[in-house]
Amino acid sequence: MTLSDDLNFGEQGGEFEQATPASPVVFGIAFTPKVIGILVGVIGLGTAGYILVSLLMPAWENYQQQQAKSSELQGQIEQKKANIKQIDKLKDELAQAKQQKVQVLALFANEKSLDTLLLDLNRLIESGNTPTSVSTVRAKLDKFTPVSQKPEPVADGSLGLQVDNKLKRSIINAQITGTYEQTQSIIRNIERLQPLLIVKDYQSTLAPAEAISPLDKSRVRVGPAAINTLFQLQVLMPLSPEEIAAAAAAKAAPKK
Predict the structure, then answer these.
(1) What CA–CA distances, in Å, run from 17 to 5, 23, 34?
(2) Most buried residue, 110, 113, 178, 212, by most Cβ within 10 Å?
(3) 254 vs 144, 156, 224, 249, CA distance in Å?
């Protein structure tokens, strides 16, 4: 073999190319490395989509359901907390209302204060007769007469329709004697007494002059003259629950 024969690669190269196998062909498509890479990518995307649909989506839906359930339960908890706070607020308001009721009821009279009213009134009048007074007139209680033996329910609307059959009152006719200043002070102090009292039908007249012996020089009148004052005292007391029920039943009973 000559050197030229050994270096004749052209012809041998053609034979080598014919010996190299070609890419597989399916349905007329040559599966080149590029095509195979594309197919692998598509298969990967399909597999990911299948996993997403079959596994992740149910899990996500379950998560959303649990999230909604958790929010609902949290809302119920917050509502219960709000209800508890509301209950506590209502309890506080109820306690305040009861306290205010006690304070209001303390303003009214009761059977005990009614029994001692005469003594309280006498003490109040006598406290105004101070030794330093420039007047020789001594204030005094001349009359204290209850109109009825026991308190009667208020049902005539004289104190307002709202208190009808909720209060009872004892009416007392009273008369005091004293100067105008003494009388004014006594009436003012009566209205300031702890039991709730109403002073009505106030009438004042000049008291007749006392007969003084000419020989009694010590009884010369000094200062303003005395006046007689007639008035009506109304002592108010709340009805007990039993008395309120009895008054309501009497009102609802048909008249014969």
Answers:
(1) 19, 13, 21
(2) 178
(3) 38, 18, 59, 10
Map residue 211 onto helix, strand or coil: coil
Cα gap 125→185, rounded to integer Å: 9
Q: Please count the other Cβ atoms lying within 10 Å of the Cβ belonging to residue 228.
A: 17
Rounded CA-CA distance 42/21 in Å is 26
Name residue, tokens 């899990």.
59
Q: Extract long-range pairs of 95-98: CB within 8 Å, 24+ residues apart.
A: none
Q: Which residues pair with 231 in a beta bridge?
A: 174
- 139 touches 129 (CB < 8 A): yes
Tell me the pairing of strands 152-153 and 167-178: antiparallel
| Per-residue pLDDT tens over the stretch 119-176 | 988 988 888 786 655 567 889 999 999 998 888 888 888 888 888 888 888 999 999 9
Contacts 24+ apart (CB under 8 A), 111-120: 111/237, 113/194, 113/195, 113/235, 114/151, 114/170, 114/195, 114/235, 114/237, 117/172, 117/195, 117/233, 117/235, 118/144, 120/193
Question: Which tokens is 218 given?
Answer: 């010590």
Closest CA to 188 of 38, 63, 178: 178
CA-CA distance, 221 to 209, in Å (whole number)?
A: 9
Q: Do the Cβ atoms of 120 and 146 come closer than 8 Å?
A: no
| 137 touches 210 (CB < 8 A) | no
pLDDT tens by residue, 173-202? 999 999 888 898 888 888 877 677 888 888
| Tokens, residue 187 | 């009436």
